[in-house]
Design a protein that fits this description.
Layout: H1 2-25, H2 29-35, E1 47-51, H3 62-70, E2 74-76, H4 85-96, E3 103-108, H5 110-118, E4 125-131, H6 142-146, E5 158-162, E6 168-172, H7 177-181, H8 187-196, E7 200-201, H9 202-206, E8 219-224, H10 232-241, E9 245-249, H11 256-259, H12 261-272
Parallel strand pairs: 1-2, 1-3, 3-4, 4-8, 8-9
Antiparallel strand pairs: 5-6, 6-7
Helix pairs in contact: 3-12, 4-5
Length: about 270
């Protein structure tokens, strides 16, 4: 009996020692917690869609695109057709609906009118960002809003070109473009912008807006106070009406997206968070 008891005690001690050794080799719960990756509770970053306006093209956003890509955002900068509010908005809407996940829409100048219309009913659009842009109410046109307050000198700089399909296209005269559109951009760059500008159909500037999405989607606005296309007072009026988160850049031109890309990117990323 004593021999059996001794064997039993020996086996029990061996099992206990083995269990202790196993526990010492296994990682502790606190160590595991400390090394595990923190869960991502913020979700994916939105795709930023950058919409240029009249007398410009998608390359106007090059500065912002570089910064946004560096900061981990997906970016699309499509060619805005500049043919008419409804048709341009329909084109942009099809692009929005091709994107999986949240979207931030950014519009410059006439592009603001386009994003206001295109975002209506699009549940994945989380923010609208207006850069020296029109923020129209239903029934308002770009031409009407530009003339609501004094200060725009755009009309006198425009050149008309008739196209074979009967459309009148508008350009800014190249020799007047730097001072009118891009006074704070280096002259050599402003001349390149003048040469590569894309025209807008004259009828697009008089076409009334549909129901704007800013009634239901949060908006941000950047106002360059030296804008000669859309007077700063008009931009302030539209921004206040839309309850937009607004910043001003003193003395900046209508081409603020070219001259101040970091400030524009900072506002876009504020809207994206």
């Amino acid at each position: 009996m004593r021999i059996k008891a001794t064997i039993a005690r020996t086996l029990a001690v061996g099992v206990a020692l083995a269990a202790t050794a196993a526990l010492s080799l296994a990682p502790s719960s606190s160590a595991t917690t400390g090394t595990a990756a923190a869960p991502d509770t913020k979700g994916p970053k939105p795709t930023v869609i950058l919409v240029h306006g009249a007398f410009a093209d998608a390359s106007s956003w090059n500065g912002e695109i570089g910064e946004l890509l560096r900061d981990g955002y997906k970016v699309i900068a499509p060619a805005n057709p500049l043919r008419g509010v409804a048709s341009d908005a329909a084109y942009l809407k099809s692009l929005i609906e091709s994107v999986q996940g949240p979207v931030v829409l950014v519009g410059h100048s006439y592009g603001g009118q386009v994003i206001s219309n295109a975002a209506l009913g699009e549940k994945n659009v989380k923010a609208l960002v207006y850069i020296a842009a029109f923020i129209p109410e239903k029934g308002e046109s770009a031409g009407q809003l530009a003339g609501k307050f004094p200060g725009s000198t755009l009309g006198a700089t425009l050149q008309q070109v008739s196209t074979p399909d009967g459309v009148t296209d508008l350009y800014v005269k190249q020799d007047l473009f730097p001072q009118q559109f891009a006074a704070d951009v280096p002259l050599s760059q402003a001349k390149l912008m003048a040469a590569t500008q894309r025209p807008i159909a004259a009828t697009a500037l008089d076409e009334p807006s549909g129901e704007p999405a800013w009634h239901t989607i949060p908006s941000w606005s950047l106002i360059p106070t030296g804008d000669k296309n859309i007077p700063a007072k008009a931009q302030e009026f539209m921004s206040q009406r839309a309850h937009a988160h607004t910043v001003e850049i003193k003395g900046a031109s209508h081409a603020v997206l070219v001259s101040q890309p970091h400030a524009v990117t900072k506002l876009i990323e504020s809207a994206a968070r």
